[in-house]
Design goal:
The protein has two helices and seven strands. The chain is mostly beta strands. A hairpin with a 6-residue loop joins strand 5 and strand 6.
Length: 205
């Protein structure tokens, strides 16, 4: 069981919540019933990141289901003790990720599951707050992985996401649309890119 010196601890991050899309480096706390102090854990990197949201890998789970041992050390690293709460800051602090700008201000569009429009080198963001004003930016790797970028099973930040997407930085704010939608006039007919074959009677095949 992890131990710590209660005389030298800081505030606790948010407590563990099953189903949360934790990313590499995200921290949470576990405060056992009846205890005044909590314990801080940090989510490990790929390929273990996807397990961080699972109750089976929570430090609260005492089942010895991983080779006769508890499972949480496979997904989480124990960081130390804590007490109280961390004072909120004006914005999240991303210490290990560079700021993404790509000559623009704001975050790229939020990731949409099963989007067949994703192409190699497309950028998406995974919001870290409710209104997507702060987020983590991912880029679809290449032509070989593009079909996976379009598949929810390889979504950024999931256990398989690193095979299709590359984490490239963090962002803040939103990007305003730069190109207006193209409206086709009512009097302009649709144009086919191929020719329809017909029978000798003029019927389409």
């Amino acid at each position: 069981t992890p131990t710590f010196d209660p005389a030298n601890v800081g505030g606790c991050p948010d407590e563990f919540e099953e189903g949360t899309d934790y990313e590499e480096g995200d921290k949470m706390s576990i405060i056992a019933d009846g205890e005044d102090y909590g314990k801080i854990y940090k989510c490990k990197g790929w390929p273990y990141t996807g397990d961080c949201k699972s109750e089976a890998f929570s430090p609260l789970n005492s089942d010895k289901a991983c080779g006769g041992e508890v499972c949480w050390p496979e997904a989480w690293t124990y960081e130390g003790g804590c007490t109280g709460t961390i004072t909120p800051t004006g914005a999240p602090v991303f210490r290990s990720l560079p700021k993404w700008d790509k000559d623009k201000e704001g975050c790229p569009p939020e990731y949409v599951p099963n989007n067949s429009a994703y192409k190699p080198e497309d950028y998406v963001s995974i919001p870290k707050n409710d209104d997507n004003t702060y987020g983590v930016v991912w880029q679809c790797k290449n032509a070989m992985t593009a079909p996976w970028c379009q598949n929810e099973g390889y979504a950024p930040g999931t256990v398989n996401g690193g095979e299709a997407w590359e984490k490239v930085g963090h962002c803040d704010g939103t990007i305003s649309p730069t190109v207006a939608p193209t409206v086709i006039p009512d009097d302009k007919p649709c144009q086919f890119k191929y020719k329809l074959d017909t029978t000798s009677d003029g019927e389409y095949i």
